[in-house]
Amino acid sequence: MPTTRSDVVPHPELTREQHYVTDLYTRLDAARELATRRLRQAITWPAVDPQALQERDATVRFQTERVTALDAAEAGLCVGRIDRLADGPLYIGRIGLPADDAASDPALVDWRAPAARPFYTATPVHPLGIERRRHIRTRGRTVVRLDDEVLTDGVAGSGLTGEAALLAALDASRTGRMTDIVRTIQAEQDRVIRADDRGVLVVQGGPGTGKTAVALHRAAYLLYTHRERLARRGLLVVGPTPTFLRYIADVLPSLGETGVLLAGLGQLRPGLDARGEESPEAAAVKGRLEMVDVLRAAIADRQVVPDAPREVVVDGFALRLRPVDVSRARNAARRADPLHNLARPVFVRRVVDLLTRRYAERIGAGIDVGRDLFDREDVAALRREVAEEPGVRSLLAQLWPVLTPERLLTDLYANPARIAAATPGWSDADRALLHRPRGSAASPAAWTPADVPLLEEAEELLGFDDSAQRARADRDRRRALARAQETLDVLHGSRSVDLEDEHLEAEVLSAGDLLSAEDLADRHRELDLRTTAERAAADRTWTFGHVVVDEAQELSPMAWRLLVRRCPTRSMTVVGDVAQTGSLAGADRWDAVLRPHVGDAWRLEELTVNYRTPAEIMEVAADVLDAGGSDARPPRSVRTGGTPPVAETTGSARLPGRVASVAAELAGDEGTTAVLVPPSRVADVVAALGELRPDVQSGPGADSSLGPVVLTPGEAKGLEFDSVVVVDPQGVLDEGVRGVNDLYVALTRATQRLVVLAPGPLPAVLSRLETAAA
Ligand SMILES: Nc1ncnc2c1ncn2[C@@H]1O[C@H](COP(=O)(O)OP(=O)(O)OP(=O)(O)O)[C@@H](O)[C@H]1O
User: Fold this and answer.
1) Ligand 1 mean position, distance from CA 213 (Å)
2) DSSP 3-state assignment of 531?
3) Which residues, other chains included, contact 637 with Cβ-Cβ below 8 Å and sequence gap of 6+?
4) pTM attached to this predicted model
5) Helix (H) or strand (E) holding 331
6) What are the backbone angles phi and psi of residue 588, rounded to the nearest 5°?
7) HEC string for 63-89
8) Which of 264, 370, 492, 720 sits in a 20 to 30 Å window from 569, CA-based?
9) What is the tens place of the pLDDT at every residue in 686-724?
10) Cα separations (Å) of 523 from 49, 484, 501?
């Protein structure tokens, strides 16, 4: 496809486009000024009644979002234009800006609007009524480059949209943070971004095909297209690790979207950030769907029927509780409510009633007054006495304890006998994987990401008895009403009362005598000013309007169950690559993973072009993919050339030192550098590299924007770096539970340079690499 580039000879229309872009920025400034003024006004609105207060709140929120979106549009406001055969040019940008005349085309069309679509999808073969596409590159507010594509000459070209602009974007050094791709979205990506939001859409694609970028742009597209529904229900983006979330965190804000909740798998239970570590085998066992039955059994095991009668002493009388009494009470409670904590009051009532009867019989034994000895009030008093007796309370706590999910799981993991009781038919080896000592009070055993779906499932099965909370809310409300009534009485009783609270006085006087105590109480109730994302993050029963899952191949069946519960409409975008699965609990086929949760109600889209890894590196990675026997095809790299990948064998003793010198040299260049190692080599490599680069970081929190990082393949998942050193590939193959996938992930993280350093001969799968001995 013929492309005209303006960086060699200035494009003849550069000045004209500069005028247009300057005008767009003037419009942006005006829109920002207006929104800021409205925001300022709204903040100072007097809220004369609850409705006004709510309106004010909504306006403040709306204008705040508007100012944020306008601010975000500043960098790269206009991305290009399309020249339509029939209707002339249309400019495409990060936001929409209206023209002066409402009847004409907008001055700038939001990239997500239907009218902008041909900018991304028109080709010489299917020009969609477009004559020419122009990419406009700006630095600050200055137009620095124009790239034109003529679409009417019928020349098929490379199949890439805006090839020159795309290649320039891909060649740029990485900053350690993902950036948006609004300027250069490709046609196959656009199809995914704008796909219908109903049902489950699975996006399968090899490394570097833009799955993460596409998933985030799809989130922005859906928020734009279904703004009202999604603003109310919220949108959740789930990523595998906190590092990954930090890597992608800037993309949605740069698209002007701040209302999205980003969460790692360890953060899907409000109030918990589970970062504990455990073996992949333990995580895999916890991820199995059978764990639902294990939890059910573990709960049933806590509803105890003793082997022998138990005695409690109330006011000197020994009262007997037989196993059959407990068993009957337990049956009644289980019938009344399947949820443990909600059924407990029934169990407690049955047992206390029985003990009260026995207590009354014991007191009345031998006394004959010719009628019932106790009237209703007496019985109620005896009942209270029984219920409050510490011995009775402690017996009830043993027979049917109140359980939090945390307590249930901690007690289960810590006790092999409980594990055995809850896992009929399991092997001893699998049972041992669930075992975890309790830890001390000062440092309890840390929750791991695999525990999170279990805690959430347990909460579903235990139920949460919120009657005390509701009673408290009721009490608070009654108190507020009483206070409000008193205030009104005082004000109405004597208008000459000197009110200290000027604000209250103004409100009461303006509302006049019509103000009721109820209104006044409402007016003083605090409004919930949290954003949808914040409210959703704090509420475990919150259900989202749409859920995006990235690196979805890593999710265990239990994690899927949790996510599907949070999205009952099943409006989900699931992106991943089954050839990169590193966890034992993860997926090697989408069908097998999704069927238990959504049946066959899901559809597949594939991304086929790799935008990250140069072809020479991808060829090496493709051999590894082949060796793994995966059905997946390696994606086609869009870039070739650059530095060819190299390998070196160093001998075992020299390995850490050589890794350090190679990595330090690469890290001296522009861009980011990562050293990817099997887990057993992390410490040695960090120590050696630390001698040369004290700013080296490692582990899940490592941030490549601050210096070189040393990571395991699992930690590097989803990330990319300009230079990558893969250390001890045989170790990577041997140490990972899916070693071939781990090596495939490690090799495909590089955007520019790849060096493989091995202590001994290279594994056969890397035979394509030329080896030098150091
Ligand atoms: N259309 C595009 N224009 C510019 N850059 C793009 C485009 N598509 C993808 N990229 C870039 O390619 C790189 C890889 O994208 P991304 O991380 O989304 O791929 P991925 O499929 O999620 O990879 P992995 O499976 O390895 O996690 C990123 O730097 C991304 O910004």
Assistant:
1) 6
2) coil
3) 208, 609, 610, 613, 614, 615, 617, 618
4) 0.84
5) helix 323-336
6) -115, -5
7) HHHHHHHHHHCCCCCEEEEEEECCCEE
8) 264
9) 999 999 999 999 988 889 999 999 999 999 999 999 999
10) 7, 10, 15
Where does ligand 1 bind, in terms of residues with CB under 6 Å? 166, 169-170, 178, 181, 184-186, 189, 205, 207-213, 577, 580, 611-612, 718, 720, 748
Q: Rounded to whole angstroms, how far apart are CA atoms 305 and 558?
A: 31
Residue 421 DSSP one-character state: H
* pLDDT single digits (tens) 150-194: 988 766 667 788 888 888 888 887 788 898 999 999 999 999 999
Cα 179 to ligand 1 centre (Å): 9
Residue 126 has φ and ψ, to the nearest 5°, of -125, 80
Measured distance CA(34)–CA(288) in Å, rounded: 54
Find residue 773's DSSP bridge partners: 649
- 121 labeled part of a ligand binding site: no
Q: Which residues contact 690 (CB under 8 A, 6 or more apart)?
A: 696
Give the start-end residues of each E strand in 288-387: 310-314, 317-321
Residue showing tokens 């954003």: 531
| Best residue for ligand 1 mutational test, from 173, 175, 181 (most atoms within 8 Å of Cβ) | 181
Q: 772 by DSSP, 3-state: which?
A: strand
